[in-house]
Each structure stands twice: as C-alpha cells, then as structure tokens.
C-alpha cells in the first residue's frame, strides 16, 4: 500500500501494474480510524477484505487471524522476486511456494482464486496466443475452441494491452469449481493455470474438483490454504506499525 515517489516500491513492480482496489482499502481504513483510531492495520484490512470478497462471491466464510502490523518499507524487488509470474511452469510454481513453506496443495488450492476476477490481456496473450516459448505460435495446450475467443479480445504484439478478460470464462463473479473445470479442459487463462496439469498431485486435485458435485471439500481446503498464506512473514510489535493512512509515502 505504501507509495514510492521514486517509483521503486512494490506498487511499481511489473506484477503489481494491473492491481486495483487501493481506494477501497483506504475507505475501509478511514471508517475504522473514526471508530477505533490506530488499532487495525492495513494488512489486517486486506486479509479481511479478501475473506469478505470471497464470501460475497458465494464462496466460503472462513475465520482469519488478525494482529498484524504494517511494514515501514516497500521495495519493488520484493514483488518481483516473491510473486510467481503468470508464465511460470509447474516446477517454478512449486519452488516459489516452497520458499514460503507452502506445499503443492496450497498451490493448487490457492490457484482456484482465479475463479473470480479479470486479467489484462498483457499478462497472458503473448505466452498463450501469439508467441509461445518465443516460437511465434499459439500454446499447443490451449483449448482450440477457447483460443479464438481470446484472440478477439487481445491484440498481438501489445505487452501492455489493458483489455480485461475473465479469468474463469463465463463465471468471473462466482466463487465456485468452474475454474477447475476450465483448467481440466485446457481453458486455463495463464500458463501457470495450465501448469497445474503437469504434476500428478496437482492434476489429480484439479480432476477431482472438476468432477465434484459439491464445493464443500474445496471450501474447506481453501480456508486452510488462506490461513497458511496469511501467516507468512507477519510483522508484530516493533517490527511493524499502525498508521492512519495505508497509502503513505515511503520516500
């Protein structure tokens, strides 16, 4: 949430360029400051807002742990190094998560978050539609019926194309199992979605969720995975702070 005047903060990193929702977090923070000043961190607000967004999208209502404090510094390299890019293969994905003590199940479960929301064409079109592996061709694993729909939306040769595309085709506002059905049928939007089929354990989980009649198992797994992720590198005490404004200037 911190803003760098020099353009060197996390918000300036390539993985962050299409992020939205900063203003909503600030509105929530302002309301909380009116009621209980300097008590709730921006980090906790984001965690709880994510939980509520999932629930309001017909997903699970799960408990979240609170008590985080906010960081005092923001570095572009953290976002560049910590977030697996959408072109990641399954080996890279597992390495990125293992560094954070998250396992294969966390990977395949958290990937299911792509059942809601949109992505800009610039984040996937080159790798999936026009220049797979630098060969000037479409990704051969991409569903042949789905690819023309994406081509209609995304221009070739524009790495910054901001055109929004549903990450879960046909169901971008409902938290359900349709993401896994899409991936199982080679309709994953990102290479990192498609990569879930390249490992036996993640592939078996995708197949099981794609065939499931009830989302209950997934909802339980999702709550656990979000708890695991919410415990990563938490700041407490003097290691962090509570500030009145989330989007403060860091330099």
From TrEMBL:
Q: What GO molecular-function term can you cite, just one?
A: heme binding
Q: How is the cofactor bound?
A: Binds 1 heme b (iron(II)-protoporphyrin IX) group per subunit.
Q: Which cofactor does it need?
A: heme b; Ca(2+)
One GO BP annotation here? hydrogen peroxide catabolic process
InterPro entries per record: Haem_peroxidase (IPR002016), Peroxidase_pln (IPR000823), Peroxidases_heam-ligand_BS (IPR019793), Secretory_peroxidase (IPR033905)
Per its UniProt entry, which superkingdom is the organism in?
A: Eukaryota
Q: What positions does the entry give for substrate binding?
A: 84
Q: Which cysteines are joined by disulfide bonds?
A: 42-246, 121-154
Residues annotated as domain Plant heme peroxidase family profile? 1-250
Q: Does the keyword Iron apply?
A: yes
Which residues are Ca(2+) 1-binding?
A: 10
Q: Which Pfam families match?
A: peroxidase
Give the similarity note: Belongs to the peroxidase family. Ascorbate peroxidase subfamily.
What function does the entry list? Removal of H(2)O(2), oxidation of toxic reductants, biosynthesis and degradation of lignin, suberization, auxin catabolism, response to environmental stresses such as wounding, pathogen attack and oxidative stress. These functions might be dependent on each isozyme/isoform in each plant tissue.
Protein name per Swiss-Prot or TrEMBL: Plant heme peroxidase family profile domain-containing protein
Organism of provenance? Zizania palustris
